[in-house]
């Protein structure tokens, strides 16, 4: 499809075309590029070729050291840019392909490039939108009865994270020191965290913002969502547990948050969209489903057309004729339908395979500890963005909104060591005699992910970090 | 003391010399100034006069549209700048005083200036460091037994706020809409907040930062603390109450946070320092410092006039040392706020939540007006100053007016 050769297993197929910021030894200037195969197309070299109706007046956005200006041009600019990049890379397009001088300047080997943070991040928000993760954590800390807080199913719970410590893949993470209270009968202590953990997440960049006081309606949310990266929201569980009541996580999180460098545009993910998690208003059990005129299994989701019947629990709304019921192993309770400002019918959940691996010091190979998928999310990115701005809060180009730890229903899909080791009660086997409950100094954690197409992939590169020992005191 | 006349009751005495960013109608460029009396000294016009050992090589910081570059030069640069400004404004110094042309260009009436956010704020952190406030809120929501959480007396509790919605005094605040659950036996509802509140706070700007992974030791914290402003951390209590468990306040706060425009340098506050709160239990060593770093600043909120000493349990040094102890990196322009400031007397409570005791009694505004929470059209003004002998070191205004919620 492109005159640049791309391996079938490469993350950076012609169908991807993610944006990133890079520099090289001979040219240390931070500049914008597009990944293709094992190459980078340097947009600053070819900016004069973007002469469409939107970008023609704004070619300088590709001279910037970050993506913010380009993102801020808005939805039509991103679509136009993608068209132009696709055209310029096409196997049958000669503009770049046959201009040896331009082509030589425009392409850089990924292996000789250093990647940087792709945007200036004004604010970073972390959501908590995986139902399995929130439930696991709730069970561990509050018991099965009170696993999910009452608000969890009603709004996408989130909190402000620290923007200054969002770092690009490859940056080492120093084990944090802090205050902890391992024994509640004794005073708190100070020292290096003993419960350093990973959190498998994905995050999206806000492309265009909104004015303070003017919410983004959910039907317009997609116009503000630029693209996605992988994230590791490193966490110090002992520091977090002692500090977080009542104002939320703080130093247990803000010592470092790693993201992958290549921002995959939403257009590249569209072929991998799936139906959203079902969020409906009735509590119903399968044996009260009287009329099964239309039953369509979709994973663990069944859709049936029934006459609404109120069961035992008081239910919110009036009757409906079509219901979707989410069944899970532990109970048959369907999830409440969110308020109108959070509702959207179009699918915006994506099938993205995700992997977490650990390579300890002395290990010859990394061991995969988690295989998960972005499709497990309960709240969509549109719902998160609409919720975030419904009170008038203003988002800006470059803002980063993360999903929260991604866990699926199976233990091998749990996205944190807290869950994989079930709060340290069992070990995570790394093979070759190695095992973990939490991270050790020297551990290198790598998160990868890709969408599987037919004969190609749309992938995210690497989100990696290595643990350095805590500072000596 | 200065050749510029300053009224005894002016916030901007010769002892203050706060920094701000302003523009004028005839020159809309954002530039750095120092307030003196009812004037602004435009530093971009006189930057060539800063030829000391530190600033001489960096005069361009006074050409910037924000204070970040100047703050980032560090502690010695701030001290040197203050010396030079004091010298140039001194009654017996002729450089500015007698150069009519330069003087005409260098001074602007405050009344003809528009003030802007003084810095680009990379991160905004809100602490919770008033013991009376935390106790009041705890009593209201958890009962007297469990008023203060076990961690409150052990570490300065804080959370990340939203940087994008920190706005300068004078910017209107639109009543937020959001999700609330006034009746726990019914499903949540959507609508305009009915419990819009104020929070009297102060905040400091980080001047110089630290590298990721390298904490700021408490004995060096003062080298990173540039100066202070007033803050109103507007809050929607109903939105906040429904969302905040377990990850903290979010939309109940981030629809707007107002700060006053003039950043008072720590050196101007030094004469008003007082002993720190006695801390019991004694905090861990990384949080201990003996030198006083608590400041006597009178604060007023116009909704209900009150006078309260700034008497926080945790000092700004402790907050900064705690914030970076895990390696978190702060940067020039970061804003760290104190949390709602309340004193022991009901007169001195810093929020309507406390003044009305969760809506159980009205706040009398006089003239037949009363409130539990804010109404559309209410204008809230926070002011503050340190009282010297025959002069004040004050903060100007931190003001906002409530606009009605958007129609749906």
TrEMBL record, chain A:
Its EC number is 3.7.1.2. Substrate binds at residues 128, 142, 240, 244, 405. Mg(2+) binds at residues 233, 253, 257. It is an enzyme of class 3 (hydrolase). It holds the Pfam family FAA_hydrolase_N. The active site is at residue 133. Pathway: Amino-acid degradation; L-phenylalanine degradation; acetoacetate and fumarate from L-phenylalanine: step 6/6. The keyword Magnesium applies. Keywords: Calcium, Hydrolase, Magnesium, Metal-binding, Phenylalanine catabolism, Tyrosine catabolism. Residues 125-463 form the Fumarylacetoacetase-like C-terminal domain. It catalyses: 4-fumarylacetoacetate + H2O = acetoacetate + fumarate + H(+). Residues 15-118 form the Fumarylacetoacetase N-terminal domain. GO terms for molecular function: fumarylacetoacetase activity; metal ion binding. The keyword Magnesium applies. This is Fumarylacetoacetase. It comes from Pygocentrus nattereri. The lineage of its organism: Eukaryota, Metazoa, Chordata, Craniata, Vertebrata.
Automatic annotation (TrEMBL), chain B:
It catalyses: 4-fumarylacetoacetate + H2O = acetoacetate + fumarate + H(+). The active site is at 133 (proton acceptor). Its EC number is 3.7.1.2. Signal peptide: none annotated. Residues 15-118 form the Fumarylacetoacetase N-terminal domain. Mg(2+) binds at residues 233, 253, 257. Ca(2+) binds at residues 126, 199, 201. Residues 125-398 form the Fumarylacetoacetase-like C-terminal domain. Its cofactor is Mg(2+); Ca(2+). PANTHER family: FUMARYLACETOACETASE. This is Fumarylacetoacetase. It comes from Pygocentrus nattereri (Red-bellied piranha). The gene is FAH.
């Amino acid at each position: 499809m492109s005159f640049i050769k791309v391996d079938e297993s490469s993350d950076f197929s012609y169908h991807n075309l993610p944006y990133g910021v890079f520099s090289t030894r001979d040219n240390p200037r931070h500049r914008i590029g597009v990944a293709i195969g094992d190459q980078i197309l340097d947009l600053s070299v070819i900016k004069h070729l973007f002469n469409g109706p939107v970008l023609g007046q704004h070619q300088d956005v590709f001279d910037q050291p970050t993506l913010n200006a380009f993102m801020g041009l808005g939805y039509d600019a991103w679509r136009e840019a993608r068209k132009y990049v696709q055209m310029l890379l096409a196997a049958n397009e000669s503009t770049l392909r046959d201009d040896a001088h331009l082509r030589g300047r425009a392409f850089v080997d990924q292996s000789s490039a250093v990647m940087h943070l792709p945007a200036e991040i004004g604010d970073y928000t972390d959501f908590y939108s995986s139902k399995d993760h929130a439930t696991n954590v709730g069970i561990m800390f509050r018991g099965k009865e009170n696993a999910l807080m009452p608000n969890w199913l009603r709004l996408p719970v989130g909190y402000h994270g620290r923007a200054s410590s969002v770092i690009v893949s490859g940056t080492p993470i120093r084990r944090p020191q802090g205050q902890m209270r391992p024994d509640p009968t004794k005073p708190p202590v100070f020292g290096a965290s003993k419960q350093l953990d990973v959190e498998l997440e994905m995050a999206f960049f806000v492309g265009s913002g909104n004015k303070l006081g003017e919410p983004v309606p959910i039907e317009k949310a997609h116009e503000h969502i630029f693209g996605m990266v992988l994230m590791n929201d490193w966490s110090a569980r002992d520091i977090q547990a002692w500090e977080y009541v009542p104002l939320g996580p703080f130093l247990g999180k803000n010592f470092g948050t790693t993201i992958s460098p290549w921002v995959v545009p939403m257009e590249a993910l569209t072929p991998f969209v799936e139906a959203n998690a079902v969020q409906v208003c009735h509590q119903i059990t399968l044996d009260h489903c009287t009329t099964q005129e239309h039953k369509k299994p979709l994973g663990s989701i069944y859709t049936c057309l029934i006459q609404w019947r109120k069961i035992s629990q008081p239910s919110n709304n009036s009757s409906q004729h079509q219901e979707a019921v989410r069944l899970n192993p532990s109970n048959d309770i369907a999830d409440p339908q969110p308020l109108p400002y959070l509702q959207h019918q179009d699918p915006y959940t994506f099938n993205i395979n995700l992997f977490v691996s650990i390579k300890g010091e002395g290990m010859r190979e990394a061991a995969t500890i988690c295989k998960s998928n972005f499709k497990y999310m309960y709240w969509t990115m549109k719902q998160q963005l609409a919720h975030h701005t419904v009170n008038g809060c203003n988002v800006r180009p470059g803002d980063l909104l993360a999903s929260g730890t991604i866990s699926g229903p199976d233990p091998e899909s749990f996205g944190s060591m807290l869950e994989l080791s079930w709060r340290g009660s069992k070990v995570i086997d790394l093979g070759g005699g190695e095992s973990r409950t939490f991270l050790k100094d020297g551990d290198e954690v790598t998160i990868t992910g890709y969408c599987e197409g037919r004969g190609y992939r749309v992938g995210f590169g690497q989100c990696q970090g290595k643990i350095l020992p805590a500072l000596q005191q």
